[in-house]
Amino acid sequence: MPTLNHLIALEATARLGSFRAAAEEMSLTQGAVAQQVRALEKEFGCLLFERLPRGLSANRQGREYITRLRLALGIIDEATRELLQQETPEEAGRLIVSTTSTFASRWLIPRLPEFSRANPDIAVMIDACDTARPLSGKGGVDMAIRWGAPPFAESHARFLLPASSIPVCAPALLSRRGVLSPDNLDVLPLISDSHKNWQRWFESCGRPGVKISGPVFSQTSHAIEAAEQGMGVALVPSLFVEAALQTGTLVHALKHPHRLDTEAGFYIITAQPIEPESACGRVIDWLLTQGRLVDPAGFIP
Predict the structure, then answer these.
(1) Domain spanning 165-252: which superfamily?
(2) Residue 16's CB: how many other CB atoms inside 10 A?
(3) What is the CATH topology of the domain spanning 4-85?
(4) Domain 89-160+264-294 has what CATH class?
(5) What's the average model confidence in pLDDT over 134-146?
(6) pLDDT (0 to 100) of residue 299
(7) pLDDT score at 258
(8) Burial of 143 by CB count in 10 Å (0-12 exposed, 13-18 middle, 19+ buried)?
(9) Residues in domain HTH lysR-type (predicted)?
(10) Cis before residue 151, ω within 30 degrees of 0?
């Protein structure tokens, strides 16, 4: 059998009419392409091109051979494309979930070991990024978990969790201040994140126009960490501080916590509806079950 690279050089030369043009298409030197074509001619014992003043033209033998060669190369190309579209068994069980770094570290990852033990054939890979990724599957992002409110452009969304926020702080900070209420909470540094919800929280408590003073972080996870270090009071989604409240690294800043509810929440987003029995469908079903455990009432935005 002739060398495949030589055959590809032959077809490109015939189609483009010169060694130079074929070399540019194949990212080779002109001399390398010419050498490959001449090697074929030597192997076949006949010339395949007429050398013209302004290029090359396949002769009769060359035209007949190259016509059938193109059919063979076309079959190889089609078979390769079909193969690349097929998922390997490993790929079929691998899912990429895109979400924010805070949601990943504070809610999703702590729960993943349980899912992995129950579903050893599915490997969930987390793409933690605060910008939305295109949903594509087949090597791209299979699903996303994002904060917002429907409709989501060109996607299928299922509600997962509410995003009601509560004020929390380190226990040492609270012990030095005594009983706090919405009327005097602003005596402490108020930690803000990119959502900047403190004004809305005070308005919902009947105190519009309160001056917000304290550290500002772009990431909610950093605002939570700052609160754990005693830097002030953070207003963050309650689902992100469940574990911290249970272990005592954070406490409710108010004796009677006042929640800031919004119409937005966390949604599972896919490019299209998912078959329940697929790997993606099983992950979604597990996520929804976890969401109901956190919010038994079934919050509806």
Answers:
(1) Periplasmic binding protein-like II (3.40.190.10)
(2) 17
(3) Arc Repressor Mutant, subunit A (1.10.10)
(4) alpha beta
(5) 77
(6) 37
(7) 87
(8) buried
(9) 2-59
(10) yes
How is the chain split into domains, by residue range? 4-85, 89-160+264-294, 165-252
Parallel, antiparallel, or unpaired for β 55-58 and 49-52? antiparallel
- Residues 264-275: tens digit of each pLDDT: 889 999 988 888
| 40 contacts 14 by C-beta, under 8 angstroms | no
Rounded Cα distance between 282 and 142, Å, is 13
Residue 255, both tokens: 């004796």
Structure-token pair, residue 211: 């001056």
DSSP letters spanning 119-174: -TT-EEEEEE-SSPPPB--TTSB-EEEEEE-SPPTTSEEEEEEE--EEEEE-HHHH
Q: Three-state SS for 232?
A: coil
pLDDT at 301: 34
Taking the C-alpha atoms of residue 182 and residue 57, their distance in angstroms, rounded to an integer, is 87
pLDDT score of 290 more than 60: yes
Residue 133 is which amino acid? R
Q: Do domains 89-160+264-294 and 165-252 have the same CATH topology?
A: yes
In percent, the amount of the chain with pLDDT more than 90 equals: 57
